[in-house]
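Quick one:
INPUT:
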């Protein structure tokens, strides 16, 4: 498709359960959001001798210019995500043509719903529309951009969710084999899915995240395994009392909860799914210590209003809460929870009812005459 404009779309994600398990080679159960990021890439005309990328976003005032030989540290701010993708592609031997990239997104930024991976995946799909590498390769390139160019030590959860998600589907991801298994996740009048954006983000997330990752690596070393995935489910009991033991207990019990939750979802047993989610929240709060007073208040309020299950979702220290509830409780949560949280002295959260949305796509950008985008999965 040389010379034609390309449009790529990649959704944000919400993780139903399985937090900080990805870089420990464990399990998670995310869905793709019905909100996503669209990138329009217009390669320079053949013959134009300019291989810079010029990126703009409706969400940001600054235009970002990315040189062909960009290196980590060259570009900061939001442009680092785009520059990181170009850098990772070139490091992996892909050829990229210069041109313009325009970003437009409906994913809330910094809400723990992975606007960052949506941006990376959409940029990478647009820039590789000719070569079409497989989606695991795209996920690895996006992670490399985020880890080594942006400097955020995240795992592969966000990217795999965005690339493989589908309508009314959850994904059981095994981060050791990188197998992605779809599980039907159809919502109806009985069961609703809410995402509650706390609209508060912690300031030192990268440092906290790196500390948790280092603790998990230390726990694995003390247990004599390469990763916590290789440890037995009760191995944490042999570690001395203290934070390393608690971190290991979260990861090992969380992996078991993800498998329980996946089984419950397959059986459409939303009560059992809720039990696993509630236990996951307690484990994140008490053992992994990544929750906040406001997030805990939102989880408690959702439970008080009848939620089947409620837990923080995403890396932690703010962000969003994911809730399953029957229709009556979902209405009560939507109507009453924000006031409860404001009355407790916190920022007003935003409640959204969602269902799992489509995964990432790439195709030709629509012309002025044709409304629809030709899409390929
Ligand atoms: P999350 O992924 O939970 O939304 P992150 O801190 O990981 O939060 O990523 C948010 C960052 O990603 C933003 O601060 C910005 O730099 C970049 N970003 C995400 N979406 C966009 C967008 N539409 N336009 C420009 N930058 C974006
Ligand atoms: Mg992110």
């Amino acid at each position: 498709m040389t010379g034609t404009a390309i449009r790529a779309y990649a959704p944000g994600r919400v993780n139903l359960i399985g937090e900080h398990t990805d870089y420990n080679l464990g399990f998670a159960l995310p869905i793709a959001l019905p909100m996503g990021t669209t990138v329009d890439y217009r390669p320079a005309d053949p013959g134009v001798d300019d291989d810079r990328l010029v990126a703009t976003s409706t969400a940001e005032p600054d235009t970002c210019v990315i040189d062909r030989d960009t290196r980590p540290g060259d570009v900061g701010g939001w442009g680092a995500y785009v520059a990181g993708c170009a850098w990772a592609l070139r490091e992996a031997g892909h050829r990229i043509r210069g041109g313009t990239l325009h970003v437009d997104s409906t994913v809330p930024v910094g809400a723990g719903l992975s606007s960052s991976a949506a941006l990376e995946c959409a940029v990478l799909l647009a820039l590789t529309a000719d070569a079409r590498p497989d989606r695991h390769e795209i996920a690895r390139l996006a992670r490399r951009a985020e880890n080594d160019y942006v400097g955020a030590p995240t795992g592969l959860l966000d990217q795999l969710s965005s690339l493989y998600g589908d309508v009314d589907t959850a994904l059981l991801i095994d981060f050791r084999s990188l197998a992605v298994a779809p599980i039907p996740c159809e919502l109806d009048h009985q069961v609703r899915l809410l995402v509650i954006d706390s609209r508060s983000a912690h300031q030192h997330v990268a440092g906290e995240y790196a500390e948790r990752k280092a603790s998990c690596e230390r726990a694995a070393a003390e247990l004599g395994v390469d990763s916590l995935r290789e440890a037995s489910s009760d191995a944490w009991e042999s570690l001395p009392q203290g934070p390393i033991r608690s971190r290991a207990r979260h990861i090992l019990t969380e992996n078991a909860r993800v498998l329980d939750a996946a089984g419950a979802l397959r059986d459409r047993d939303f009560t059992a799914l809720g039990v696993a989610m509630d236990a996951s929240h307690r484990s994140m709060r008490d053992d992994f210590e990544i929750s906040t007073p406001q997030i805990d208040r939102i989880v408690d309020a959702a439970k008080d209003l009848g939620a089947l299950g409620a837990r923080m979702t995403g890396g932690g220290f703010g962000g969003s809460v994911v809730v399953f509830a029957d229709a009556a409780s979902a209405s009560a949560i939507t109507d009453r929870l924000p006031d409860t949280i404001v009355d407790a002295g916190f920022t007003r959260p935003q409640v959204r009812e969602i269902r799992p949305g489509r995964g990432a796509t790439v195709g030709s950008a629509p012309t002025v005459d044709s409304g629809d985008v030709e899409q390929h999965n």
